[in-house]
Amino acid sequence: MRKEMDCHDTDFREMVPAPSVLDVAALLKQFLRELPLPIVPRIFHLVLASSFSSPPAIRLENILLCLLLLPSEHLAALSFLLRHLHIVAKRSNVNKMTATNLAIVLSPNLLPVQDNVQSSNSHKVDRKVVESNSQRLKLHTEMLEVMILNSDNVGYVTQIILERQVDHSYK
């Protein structure tokens, strides 16, 4: 399928036989992995994690504000993808892909965790690094789920943020 798309300007609907949903999902994951710079660059992961760790009352607002810091092309691509994933999740009664399931499948590609699991002086796996990667992957998955569920607000200054700005500017 990838060869066909690389060689021709082909629409999925025109392919014979039609690609399966699994093939399309694999192609999307491969595309995300092969980007020269992830849609959410690693430099933003720590800031997003800090936002996600904030109190529940302001967690979503903080995440949305952090996403506004992304380069405009990255934010546009992320916003488009999250909205699409939200539409997919809304049909989870048919496709079994809830926002949680989508986040589990796509977080390694959208928010990659990449620490070398082998210690530098041997071929043994460094268990501390594996545990750290596992914890970060879990956190990234939870963050992506929140982003999918709130995709309509990604890339916009929400009313709550605007109201807070107005309140602070008059004090």
Q: What's the gyration radius in Å?
A: 19 Å
The computed structural class is mainly alpha
Supply the number of helical segments.
9
State the distance separating the first and last CA atoms: 59 Å
Chain-averaged pLDDT:
85
Total strands: the figure is: 0
Description:
It is a single chain. With 171 residues, this protein is mainly α. The protein contains nine helices and no strands. α3 (45-52) runs antiparallel to α4 (56-67) and α7 (99-110) crosses α8 (127-149). The protein is globular and about 60 Å long.
SSE diagram, text form:
Layout: H1 2-7, H2 21-34, H3 45-52, H4 56-67, H5 72-90, H6 92-95, H7 99-110, H8 127-149, H9 159-169
Descriptors for this entry?
globular; mainly alpha; 171 residues
Give a summary of the structure in a few sentences.
It is built from nine helices and no strands. The protein has helices at about 1-5, 20-35, 45-50, 55-65, 70-90, 90-95, 100-110, 125-150, 160-170.
